[in-house]
Design goal:
By secondary structure, the chain is mainly β. It contains two helices and 15 strands. The chain has an eight-stranded antiparallel beta barrel with strand order 1-4-5-8-9-11-12-15. It has a four-stranded antiparallel beta sheet with strand order 2-14-13-10.
Length: about 220
């Protein structure tokens, strides 16, 4: 995972160097900034290695708004910062102690991607890749555990989508992202189970978004 993140960060730096060396205008109409407001569905593709009691993890799907900001170096190359926060219910399932309700947790996963846009008309598809930093906060440990702690996670992202221009400024957007995200969780269940349990959790969510954007 660490080598992959380093590779993606190096690729982003190379993309920025390449983009700033171009002589083309920032965007089709010369605008450098682009803003989108999307509704997104965040669907974890979760799995876990839970010590001592075994089992797996179940993490709920979330529906939230998302805001992103893009800066165009030229009409093809851009950087996009993606901002959203999601709340997920968490459950340990199939453990030696049965299914365990672990309450809920909020995720704040700012994601920076480098994108290439295929220009030439009103339909503008793009591909992207980048890095993600996920912060866990607002933890409610549920009715069984005394406390649940999640480590801050660094991962990477792949992205694809398209903009459909309505006029020179406004457009519709569809976007799909895959985050590769892993965290270590520590569950203090001393009262109920007489032990503290650790787990290596892969969250790896798919994120589907649809919304509207504007160029400035």
């Amino acid at each position: 995972m660490r080598k992959t993140v380093i590779f993606v960060m190096a690729a982003l730096m190379g993309l920025m160097n390449l983009a700033t060396a171009q002589d083309a205008p920032a965007n089709n109409d010369g605008s450098k900034w682009q803003f989108r407001l999307r509704g997104i569905v965040v669907t974890p593709d979760e799995s876990a290695d839970i010590e001592a009691i075994g089992g797996d993890v179940s993490i709920s799907t979330a529906f939230v708004p998302e805001f992103d900001i893009s800066y165009f170096f030229n009409e093809n190359w851009s950087l996009e910062l993606i901002l959203a926060t999601t709340k997920h219910d968490v459950e340990a399932v199939g453990t030696a102690a049965g299914d365990i309700d672990l309450g809920h947790v909020w995720l704040l996963p700012p994601t920076l991607t480098g994108q290439y846009h295929f220009t030439g008309g009103d339909f503008v598809p793009y591909l992207g890749a980048g890095v993600n930093l996920t912060l866990f906060y607002g933890v409610d440990e549920g009715p069984v555990a005394d406390d649940v702690d999640y480590d801050t996670a660094l991962g990477f992202a792949l992205q694809g989508g398209f903009d459909f221009m309505l006029n020179d400024k406004w457009f519709l957007n569809f976007d799909v992202k895959k985050l590769f995200l892993n965290t270590d969780a520590t569950v203090n269940a001393t009262t109920a189970l007489g032990a503290t349990v650790t787990a290596d959790v892969d969250i790896n969510p798919w994120i589907f978004g649809f919304g509207v954007g504007v160029k400035l």
